[in-house]
Design a protein that fits this description.
By secondary structure, the protein is α/β, with parallel strands linked by helices. It has nine helices and seven strands; from the N terminus they run βαβαααβαβαββααβα. The chain has a five-stranded parallel sheet, sandwiched between helices. It has a two-stranded antiparallel sheet with strand order 5-6. A hairpin with a 6-residue loop joins strand 5 and strand 6. Helix 2 crosses helix 3. It starts with a strand and ends with a helix. Bound molecules: adenosine monophosphate. The site of adenosine monophosphate has 17 residues, from helix 2 and helix 3.
Length: about 210
């Protein structure tokens, strides 16, 4: 098992890239920290109950809470698998926790998208609460409006995708997550791709970089 980390702002398209690639290659496993947390909130586990208020505000949940979930997924992932780790680490403390697991990091790919584009991307974002597939009303519409192509569930707008919370999430990204760019650059692991392209092109650029 090895890990490719996807770095990028909320709405940069990292989740779409990772889920599409994992769907076409069984050796790739998409692990989204946001999906793990939303799953815990939906189930009402102790971690989910704790995480909910942070997530609704757009702030980060406590490092230990999400790190325990990620460590569990790493522990249960074996064999010839590349984990596409999306949304974790989100700050330097989490990157250090990840290093302690000694799971090998193959590369870190920064999906670069300007802030102005992010707001437009997120405002059209729709997600499948069942299979986690992501859509966009203009850039990546489902075949039938409001219905997931993959599993038929009704698509939803995430609670934290409202414009005010998006602004807060971008501030969190710049303050807490962006320092990871220098952190991984110093280790010689960082690659950058232009995330402001068609979904198919983004996926190709990512594949070449990872
Ligand atoms: P995402 O789906 O990656 O945009 O994450 C949605 C929300 O889940 C974030 O705004 C945070 O509140 C929380 N979250 C996801 N990943 C992490 C993480 N690695 N550390 C702390 N909070 C996280």
């Amino acid at each position: 098992m090895n890990i490719v980390i996807l770095l990028g702002a909320p709405g940069s398209g990292k989740g779409t890239i990772a889920s599409n690639l994992a769907a076409e290659n069984t050796n790739l496993k998409h692990v989204s920290s946001g999906d793990l947390l939303r799953g815990a909130v939906a189930k009402g586990t102790a971690a989910g109950v704790e995480a909910k208020a942070y997530m609704e505000k757009g702030s980060l949940v406590p490092d230990a809470l999400i790190a325990e979930m990620i460590k569990d997924v790493i522990a249960e992932t074996e064999g010839d698998v590349t984990m596409l780790l999306d949304g974790f680490p989100r700050n330097v403390a989490q990157a250090e926790i990840l290093e302690k697991t000694q799971a090998p990091i193959k590369s870190v790919v920064l999906v670069d998208v300007p802030d102005e584009i992010i707001a437009e991307r997120i405002s059209g974002r729709r997600s499948c609460p069942e299979c986690k597939a992501g859509y966009h009303v203009k850039a990546l519409p489902p075949k039938v409006e409001g219905v997931c192509d993959k599993c038929g569930a009704a698509l939803v707008i995430r609670k934290d995708d409202n414009p005010d919370t998006v602004k807060d999430r971008l501030v969190v990204y710049h303050n807490e997550t962006e320092p990871l760019i220098a952190f991984y650059e110093a280790k010689g692991l960082l690659k950058r791709i232009d995330g402001n392209q068609e979904p198919q092109k983004n996926a190709e650029a990512f594949k070449a970089a990872m």
